[in-house]
Amino acid sequence: MQADRRRVNAPPGGTTPPVFATPSNTPIARPVRSRQPDEHRKIFLRTGFVPSASGSAYYEIPPETTSQSKTLLIPSSSSLKITCTVHGPRPLPRNAAFSPNLLLSTHVKFAPFATRSRKGYVRDSSERDLGMHLESALRGVVIGERWPKSGCEVVITVLEGEEDGWWGDAQGAEKSGGWGMMGVLAGCITVASAALMDAGIDCVDMVSGGVAALASDERGNGTRIVLDPSPSEHDIKAACVVGYLQSRDEITEMWMKGNAGVQTEALIDEAVKAAVMTRSVLGEAVKESVELKANHTDRNVKEKGSANDVTMTG
Amino acid sequence: MQRVKNLDYDSDDLYSDDENDYDNDNDQTETYSAEDKHNFSTLTPVVRAELEEADVNVSEEISDKDIHDSLWFYYWDVEKCVAYLKNGKGGKKGGGEKVKEVKTKTKSKFELAAERSAVIADSIPPPLSAAEWFRDIPWTNVPLYMTGELVLAEPAPKKLKLLGGSSKLAKLAEERRRKAAAAAAQAPPSTADSTLSALDRLSKPKDANHIEPSTPKPEPKRYPIRKKREPTPPPRETTPPPVAHEEETLDLRAPPTAFGRALSMTTPHGSGCMSMALTDILGSDNNDDPFKGPSPDDTAEKSASTLEKKTEALKLESSGAPAAPQVKIKSKGLDVPALWTASEGNRKKSAAFVVIGHVDHGKSTLMGRLLLDTGAVAQRDIDRYKKQATEMGKASFALAWVMDTGSEERERGVTVDIAQHHFSTEKVDFTILDAPGHRDFVPNMIGGAAMADLAVLVVDANQLESGLKGQTREHILLARAVGLKRIIVAVNKLDSASPPWNKELFDSVSAVMARFLESAGFSEDDIAMVPCSGLNGENVVKPPPASGASAWVAQGQHRTLLDELSTNIPPPPSIETMKGPVRLQIADVFRGGITNPLSIAGRLSSGSLQTGDTIIIQPSGEKATIKSIEVNNHAKDWTIASQICTLHISPIDPIHLRTGDLLTTPTSQADITQSFTARLTILDSQSLLPQSVDLHLGRQHLSATITQLLAIHDVRTGEIIKRKPRVVKSGQCATVRFALNESIPLLKGMRVVLRSGGVTLASGFVEKVGI
């Protein structure tokens, strides 16, 4: 079959992966959560990294350096890297039907190398599912009536996704499907919100994503609720993602997976708490970008100065 | 018994009203019934006992009568009776006295009013002296604390109401407003809590008092209600993040990873990368880099300036804004006629010739052969054309395709428009103007012939008759009409005669042609006959082989077509023509390329032009500047009369340029007119009446009307034979006045050709411009 020339394809022949020798006594242990249950990982968020897009943002949860990661080359826990670009609002194509408000479309795509199992170039069902969740999260904040006959595209590329489980737990990674998706969705909501702000699209509030999970307690037999779970560190029973508007106290999107039983409500509350924490970062990032923009325009105005003067001629 | 309230009374008379009732009752039932008395006797002690319990001194204050009255009044209700009596006595004056007063009274309203006025009169203080009266009036110096300020009271804004107060709608609206006002006034400040059932109160969370009091809770719910989160309350943190988190959230911002830094640490909104202009990449002159100036490689390649041209073009494109200051091309102020005469010695001669003839007599093929054999067209191109032509089933048209570039022309195998091509020999630069032979395209042929110095008439030796009936004849007449003096007759297709290269055939054809040309007005000296074959190329550039069927050609002193062309070059125009006013009829308007968005081509009939000259396009009158000049595909600084040139002009809208417009300079503009007089010669078997005709002025053709036939002249002497004829017959010479539908620039002496319905009627020249 003809290889696709438009893409960077894998080498035609098979390659042998490098094998790194480790001392036999190196313990390969499951990573342990070093944070408090109500402690969120740190987030890096910045807007405007794609100059050609109307709005863009980059979201990252840097990997935590633990003692174990120094002995092993493979990082014990994954990090999260998400980019988002917003194109629009721009006019709908001529053949599109009339729309009284902004048509929002979201695309979530994992880079082929984003997860441990390689992803295809075409969006699969899980990515489309994430896109639907993200769209419902954003639809609640965008004031669509202000742009009739327009469309807006939110394109998200996940450069590094959260792992679904611990890599060392071979069969565990197989069976525990999809916990990483929850963290990715929370990140997607936050980064898309920042990009929308950067694009200058009117919103009722900033929506931020938060995730909480019900995980079995390592110390006892019971379960406990943890904020911002890293799936490799926990044995997750149930998880919940929310898209939360803090100043309005509204939830635009909620996705729950697993069976939380009686703790469902507590789980949602914890997820909301996580979203509130994320929002502080989101607010800072937006503030930063606005300041930069303001400085930029100030400088431009100063530079142009008298060039803008208009002489009226009769 | 009167039970109807008298509405005339004030509301505070209500009490006395009751009293009146009571009074009346009393009057009428002065004697109680036995049952009543029994009730009195049983209830009075009870009332007394109650009053005693309430610490009221019964014996002193309240008589039995009072008790009876009150009992009667309250209809045996002991409780209310006690309350009444108690209140009455508590107020010291109370019920007893009141009742008494009532019993004695029936005071009239007038008496009451008099009493009231008496009370007021009592309160009036005694009269004061004047000094006392004005004691604290500060007559002029009013202290600050007493001064007031007059504030203009704004009239209350009118409430919007519906117009037409009598309408039903207005009434309804008014009613609704009234009801709303009443409801608002009635709305009791009752707490919602009171309406909540006990069960509700129990189930309410601790912050229930936060709920707005006006929240309607119509009836107690059967089940305890869970508190719902209000969707849009004022920002209230139902799940307030603990203070500890608040501090933590500030720490949540992480430094980026190396990847993140690389991705996002560029200045936002790409102030750096986006401003890179094309000139930065190409390296313009004004950037201050140490490698300023051309590199050694550049100097080496300087001769091949094509690249430089390209970059120049790109720069123009990139700075394509019309506001960009355009480089003003300055005229070098050359004395062009002087240059022309100075270059007399080392200059090649140049000539433009038009190829005319009947359709399918092989004009284009002959020219293709000429170009191929002179080396202007590569054999490779011809081979390619041959291949393509064979594919279309027209193998013999391959040479014609050199001239016929349009797809339609190639498909139909017929030349449509004037094709222009250059070639040069050792001595002469030639310009070929290949005219279409088909009669539908005669206007194009006229335009082409008007630009030429001499004509090459191509005649098919085998089809002389059809040619002479058709366009061969018409073309000869037209060539003469547009002022061509020299003509070369190429007797073509002699190779396909039977037998090939039949000398007799050539002689007979040339005799017929010579006779005809002379009758058309060409002198014998200006006619040359060339036997040739365009398809094979014999006697076109190279003489035919000395042996064979065509050997007689070389022996008979018949020169080749190229030789004939070279010897028949007309002399260059006189110096006066070169110094004359600039006259150029636009033959073509086209886009010359990226650098030259607008170019025009045409033959300069008089005057001279150089780069930087300001020109005027007539009749539109728009100005433009010459950016550059090309003559024979070579860039030149100037051009002079009789040259066919291409001018690249700059700031003008193409809508002002049409084929046939006249190009002049501001100092030497032509008259623009709608009417003119022309001296015409009528062709054979035609006649002229006052009618509408197609008028051809070189490349220009337009419809005109003959308004008046002024005079018929003698053909030889030019004397007037007859004034104001009704009709001008064939062969006659006449002065005719024309009216045009549009204004065009006209020059005296301009050649005109009249056609009507596809037939040429007459030809001549402009005698007088204007009426």
Keywords:
heterodimer, A: 314 residues, alpha+beta, Ribosomal Protein S5, domain 2, 5-stranded mixed sheet, 4-stranded antiparallel sheet, 5 helices, 28% helix, B: 771 residues, 6-stranded antiparallel barrel, 28 helices
Characterization of this structure:
Chain A: It is found in: Cytoplasm; Nucleus. Chain A: This is Exoribonuclease phosphorolytic domain-containing protein. Chain A: One of its GO terms (biological process) is U4 snRNA 3'-end processing. Chain A is of the alpha+beta class. Chain A has one domain: GHMP Kinase, N-terminal domain (Ribosomal Protein S5, domain 2). Chain A contains five helices and nine strands, in the order ββαββαβααββββα. In chain A, helix 2 links the parallel strand 4 and strand 5. In chain A, helix 2 crosses helix 4 and helix 4 runs parallel beside helix 5. The radius of gyration of chain A is 22 Å and the shape is globular. Chain B is of the alpha+beta class. About 13% of the residues of chain B have low confidence. Chains A and B meet through strand 1, strand 2 and helix 5 of A and helix 12 and helix 13 of B.
Strand content of chain A: 15-25%
In quaternary terms, these chains amount to heterodimer
Main beta sheet strand tally, sense and closure of chain B: 6 strands, mixed
Number of continuous helical runs of chain B: 28
Structural class of chain B: alpha+beta
Give the helix tally of chain A. Answer: 5
If strands are numbered along the chain, what order do they take across the biggest sheet of chain A? 1-2-3-5-4
The top-level CATH class of chain A is: Alpha Beta
- Secondary-structure element series of chain A: EEHEEHEHHEEEEH
Distance between the termini of chain A: 71 Å
User: Whole-Å distance between the termini of chain B?
Assistant: 124 Å
User: Describe the biggest sheet of chain A?
Assistant: 5 strands, mixed
Q: Write down how many β-strands of chain B occur, each being a DSSP E stretch of 2 or more residues.
A: 22
Strand elements of chain A, count: 9
Main location (chain A): cytoplasm
Pfam families (chain A): RNase_PH
GO molecular function (chain A): RNA binding
Protein name (chain A): Exoribonuclease phosphorolytic domain-containing protein
